[in-house]
Amino acid sequence: MVSAVEPRLVCAGCGRAITADTPLPFRCVDFDAYDDVDHVVSQPGPPTGAEWPAMSDPNPFVSFRSLLYSWHLARQRGMTDAEYVRIVRALDSAIADIDGKGFTTTPYTQAPALAAELGLADGGLWVKDETGNVSGSHKARHLMGVAIYLAVAEQTGLLSATEAKRPLAIASCGNAALAAAIVARAAGRRLRVFVPTWAEPTVLDQLQSLDADLEICERRPGDGAGDPCYLRFRSHVANGALPFSCQGPDNGLTIEGGMTLGWEAGRRWRSRELLCAGTALGARSGRAGSAPDASRGPDRVRPPVGARLASLHRRGRSCAPQRGERLGDSRVAASES
């Protein structure tokens, strides 16, 4: 096990450093909705001296814990490694009670039929399949990372019990919302989900069964061209809720959980010396998500020269369209991410 180092977070957009004693370091304080800069907070690179963990645990949040910001924060604030692992396993056990399974390494296999369709050489395409993950997509990975951080921050005194128990919020009506609801319920947290008027009734029923508080967002006079779900979400966060979402720069720590997917692929590259033509982060809807490159890992164990990370997915109509995406665009399918 690598020794803990000073936890580091930096805004990828403006370079502002966030100190480890900053509670709830989800969003860069220099964020400006109109400066055209992605103020996403994340680790600037792998922790100093990081290398692939020697022990491989089926749970990625245990196996790769020494690469996570929350682990280094926990160790710096006096928590033992065993105590950190107990937090992870307790959350994972609660998730398994709700969803029927906890987090485990997901398949990373060759896709010869798809490779042939794309005209790639034999063995030239590998796919990371997340459809068997918690809630049926990769989104729960992202939110598990945030849930672990909140537990660590509360148990080490960085947050008071009142601060740590502030309600959570997300704008989504698909697998991100379902993932958030499962993880929030496992953590014993209230979650408000801001959904559009056209959300699928089956999804709404599932969210209500998971004790999520739903708010259907109609467009109001003065809302402008923006997504009303995201506008209500931002307003709720401004009034004290914690962003528990996978979109935009609202909570940079969601990147951490997603990075475990890339580290799993990296471990396979390292153990099998694979030369990969591409990787897809699959979900039930087929969308791969918009977080920064999740394959970033310690320099000494990068994929072989020539490997590249490709994103193979269809663009789905989301509750918060990405920059440049128009809801009326003919390329946008009538499905949720």
Q: Which helices and strands, and how do they pair?
A:
Layout (H helix, E strand, L loop, with lengths): L8 E3 L5 E2 L22 E2 L17 H4 L5 H8 L4 H19 L8 E3 L1 H6 L8 E3 L10 H17 L5 H4 L3 E4 L3 H12 L4 E6 L4 H9 L3 E5 L10 H11 L3 E2 L10 H19 L65
Parallel strand pairs: 6-7, 6-9, 7-8
Antiparallel strand pairs: 1-2, 1-3, 4-5
Query: Mean pLDDT, rounded to whole units?
Result: 80
- H/E series, N to C? EEEHHHEHEHHEHEHEHEH
Radius of gyration of CA atoms, rounded to a whole number: 19 Å
Shape, principal axes of CA atoms:
globular
Q: Give the distance, in angstroms, between the N- and C-terminal Cα atoms.
A: 37 Å
Structure report:
The protein is of the alpha/beta class and 337 residues long. Helix content is 32%, strand content 9%. It is built from 10 helices and 9 strands. The strands form 3 sheets. It has a 4-stranded parallel β-sheet with strand order 8-7-6-9, sandwiched between helices. It has a 3-stranded antiparallel β-sheet with strand order 2-1-3, with no helix packed on it. Helix 2 (69-76) runs parallel beside helix 5 (139-155) and helix 5 (139-155) runs parallel beside helix 7 (175-186). The model is unreliable at 273-337 (pLDDT under 50).
